[in-house]
Amino acid sequence: MEFKVPTMAELMAAGEEPEILFWVGCAGSYDERAQKITRDICKILHHVGIKYAVLGTEESCTGDPAKRAGNEFLFQMQAMTNIEVLNAYNIKKIVTGCPHCFNTIKNEYPGLGGTYEVIHHTQLIQDLINEGKLKAEGGESFKGKKITYHDPCYLGRGNGIYEAPRKALEVLDAQLVEMKRCKSNGLCCGAGGAQMFKEPEKGNKDINVERIDEALETSPQVIAAGCPFCMTMLSDGIKLKDKEQEVKVLDIAEITARANGL
Amino acid sequence: MVAQILFLVLTLAAIALFTVNLRKIIRNIRLGKPVNRQDQPQKRLMTMIRVAFGQSKMVVRPIPAFLHFFVYIGFVIINIEVLEIMIDGLFGTHRIFNGLGGLYNFLIGSFEILALTVWVSCAIFLVRRNILKLKRFSGVEMKSWPKSDANYILITEILLMSAFLFMNAADAKLQLLGASHYVNAGAFPVSQYLINILPSSESALVIVERSCWWFHIIGILAFLNYLPYSKHFHILFAFPNTYFSNLEPKGEFTNMASVTNEVKAMLDPSFVPAETEPGKFGAKDVTDLSWVNLMNAYTCTECGRCTSVCPANITGKLLSPRKIMMDTRDRITEVGQNIDKHGATHEDGKSLLDDYISREEIWACTSCNACVEACPVNIDPLQIIMELRRFAVMEESQAPGSINAMLGNIENNQAPWKYSPADRFNWAQES
Q1: Its GO CC terms (chain B) (predicted)?
Q2: For residue A253, what are the contacts with CB-CB under 8 A and spacing of at least 6?
C-alpha cells in the first residue's frame, strides 16, 4: 500500500486516539478477494483524512459463525476477549467491512459489556458523501452503467439498512436496477448461518446460482455487494455461468474507490 | 320455550368446551421456558395494532391481502349480528334491534354485502388451493389433515354465509307476506335476489328461516370449538402473538445467560456466578423452547409465506420454516395430551429434534430471516432452528464435520479458516 495502515497499538504508544476503529474481520484479513476490499476501505479512510486505526494482529473472530452454528460458548469466549481488547483501547466508534461483524458487535456485544457506535462501511461511505467529503470524480466513470445491488441479509433484514448502500451507488450517476427480490424481500446468497463453511444439504440447485440467475435477469454490468461472504458466493456464481468478462461483482467500497481514482 | 332452553344449553356447552380447550393450550404454552416480553408496552401495543389489526404485512401480496381483508372485516363486523342472534335466541324475540330503525336497515344491509364478499373471497381461496394449486399451499407438510383443515374452514365459512343470506331472504319474503312475528325490519340488498327461488307458502318459509337461523348459530358455536384443533386459531392468537413478538433487530440473536456465567468463570477464576438452575443448552424438545416459540406454533395458520421465501426450500432442500412451526405445534399438543392422560412426569421417549424435525432440516438454514420477515403475524421459525442447533452442538457435539472444523479453527486460530493469527495483518503489505 502507498501509505501505512495505523494500528491501535501504535496510536496508543503515541498517546493518540482514533476517531474510528476499522474492524476488518476474518474474511477481510485472510480471503484474497476480500483483502482487496479491505485495502479499498483503508484508501477511502486515508483519502478523506479520517483518523482511523485497525487492530492488526490483535483482532480476532467476532464469534458470529460460532453463534449461528449453535456454539454459544465459543461465541461468548470470542466476544468477551474482543470486548476486553476494545475496551482497553477505549474504542467508541467502529466501522466494519462485513455485515456479520457489524451485526454481532452492534447487537450482541452490548449485553456482554461492549457498547460502541457501530456502522457498516456502506454507511460510512454514505455519510462521507452527504458531508461532501467523498464524491465520484477523478477515477473510473460508472455513468450510465447498469448496476444491481444485492442486499446482504445481516445488513438488510437483520438491521434494516437498505438505503445507505443504494445512496453510495446513486452518486455514480449509474443506472440502478433492482432484482425481483430486493430489500426486505432480498434473497440470501446462501452463505449465512455458517453455511459459508459447509457443503449445502441435498437439493436441486445451489442458492448462489438461484441468486445469480436472478441478478443476470437485470442484465447488469456490475453486481454490487456489501459483504465478503456474498462476494464469494456471487463471484462463484458468475464464474459458474461463465460471465466473468461481461459482469463484474464489486463491493461498494471498491466501486467508490475506483470512482474516486484511489 | 323449548327452543330458548335448547339455545341456552347449546351456547353454554359450546362456551364451556371452548374454555376447557383454550385453558389446555395456555397451559401447554406455559410449559415453555420464560422469556421477558413485557418491556416497552407502548411499542408492543403499536406493533399489535399495526400488524394484527392493520394487517400491515399482508399487503406484500396484494391479491390475497385484498381477499383476506374482506374475510377479516366480514368476520369482525358480522359478529355484531351474532349479538342480536344471541339475544333473540335467549328471549324468543325476533330482530330485537329493529327499534334502531334506519340504522338497523343500514347495518343489516352492510352485513349482507359483507357476507357476499366473504362468500366470494372464500370461493376464490378454494379455487386457489384446489384448482389453481398455488405452490405455496403444497409441500411435504401440507398433506392429509393440514390440507383438509384449510378446505373445511373455507367451506364452513361459505356455508355460514349462505345460511345467513338465505335466512334473510326467507325473512324478507315472510315480511312481504305479512306473517305474524316477522316484523318489517332490515334491508336486503343481496338476499332479495334469493327470494324467488324460495317456496311461497308461509309454513315452508318459516321452516327455511328457522333452519338457516339454527344452522348459522350452531355453525358459529361449532366453529369456535373447531379453532383449538385447527390452523384457524390465528384469528385469536394473532393479537397476543404480535404483541409479544421480538422488537429487537432481526439480526440479533439472544445471548445465553447460562453460558455467560460459565465463560466469565473461565476467563476470570475469581468470578462467582449467580446461582442458576442447571438446565440444558438449547432445545431437544418443545419444553426446552420459550413460551413465545410455543405460542408462535399455535398462531401459525400455515399460509406458507415463510417457506415460499426460504432460500433453502426454494432450492429444493428439506427445510421448510412452516413445517418447523407445524412440527412444534404437533409435538406440544402431544406433550399436552400425555400430561392429560398420564400426568405431568410422563416421558414418551420422543422429542422435537429427530422425531419431528431432522438434522438435515436445521443445518440447511442460512439464518437469513426471510421467513421471519414474511410472516404476517410475526412468527419466528429461526429461533426454534437456532435452539435445536444449540442443543446439537453444545449438548451432543453433533455438528456436520465441516462445521466442527470451522469451530476448531476459531478456537485455535481465532478465525474460521486455518490461517495463523500472526498473518492476520498481512493484507496491509500488498497494494
Answers
A1: plasma membrane
A2: A37, A40, A41, A44, A97, A121, A122, A125
Distance CA A56, CA B394 (A): 31
Measured in angstroms, the CA of A18 and the nearest CA of chain B are apart by 18
ipTM field: 0.95
Question: Tell me, what's the pLDDT at B219?
Answer: 93
The confidence score (pLDDT) of residue B276 equals 62
Q: What is the pLDDT of residues A131-171, one digit of tens each?
A: 999 988 889 999 999 999 999 999 999 999 999 999 999 99
Please give the grid coordinates belonging to residue A6.
495505523
Pick B373's closest partner by Cβ from A5, A31, A157.
A157
Instruction: Look at residue B21 in the predicted model and tell me its pLDDT.
Output: 96
**Residue of chain A whose Cα is closest to the Cα of B267:** A77
Map out the domains of chain B as residue ranges: 2-30+61-243, 257-421
CB-CB under 8 Å, A57 with B421: yes
Is residue B410 less than 8 Å (CB to CB) from chain A? Answer: yes
Q: Which residues contact B380 (CB under 8 A, 6 or more apart)?
A: B245, B246, B292, B293, B296, B372
Residue-wise pLDDT tens digits, B267-303: 887 877 766 666 789 999 999 999 999 999 999 999 9
What mean pLDDT is reported for chain A? 96
Does residue A121 sit at the B interface (CB-CB below 8 Å)?
A: no
- Residue B375: closest CA among chain A residues belongs to which residue? A185
Give A47-82 pLDDT, tens digit per residue.
999 999 999 999 999 999 999 999 999 999 999 999
Provide the pLDDT for residue B335.
Answer: 97
Cβ-based neighbour number of residue B390 at 10 Å = 25
The amino acid at B128: R
Q: Do A184 and B373 touch (CB under 8 A)?
A: yes
| Residues of chain A with C-beta less than 8 angstroms from the C-beta of B281 | 72
Distances (CA, A) of A138 to A106, A142, B77: 34, 12, 64
Question: In whole angstroms, how far apart are CA B23 and each of B27, B38, B356, B406?
Answer: 6, 21, 25, 46
Residue B4: HSE in the Cβ half-sphere, 13 Å Cα cutoff: 8
* Residue ranges in chain B modelled with pLDDT below 50: none
Report the residue from B267, B315, B419 with minimal CB separation from A204: B315
Collect all residues with Cβ–Cβ distance below 8 Å to A243 and sequence separation of at least 6. Answer: A216
What's the confidence (pLDDT) of residue B277? 63
C-alpha–C-alpha distance, residues B428 and B291, integer Å: 49
Q: How confident is the model at residue A31, as a pLDDT?
A: 97
Q: Which of residues 119-148 of B touch A (CB under 8 A)?
A: none
Domain with residues B257-421, CATH architecture: Orthogonal Bundle (1.10)
Question: What structural domains and CATH numbers belong to chain A?
Answer: 8-126 (3.40.50.1860), 136-259 (3.40.50)
Three-state SS annotation for chain A: CCCCCCEHHHHHHCCCCCCEEEECCHHHHHCHHHHHHHHHHHHHHHHHCCCEEECHHHCCCCCHHHHHHCCHHHHHHHHHHHHHHHHHCCCCEEEECCHHHHHHHHHHCHHHCCCCEEEEHHHHHHHHHHCCCCCCCCCCCCCCCEEEECCCCCCCCCCCCCHHHHHHHHCCCCEECCCCCCHHHCCCCCCCCCHHHCCCCCCCCCHHHHHHHHHHHCCCCEEEECCHHHHHHHHHHHHHCCCCCCCEEEEHHHHHHHHCCC
User: For residue A141, what pLDDT is reported?
Assistant: 94
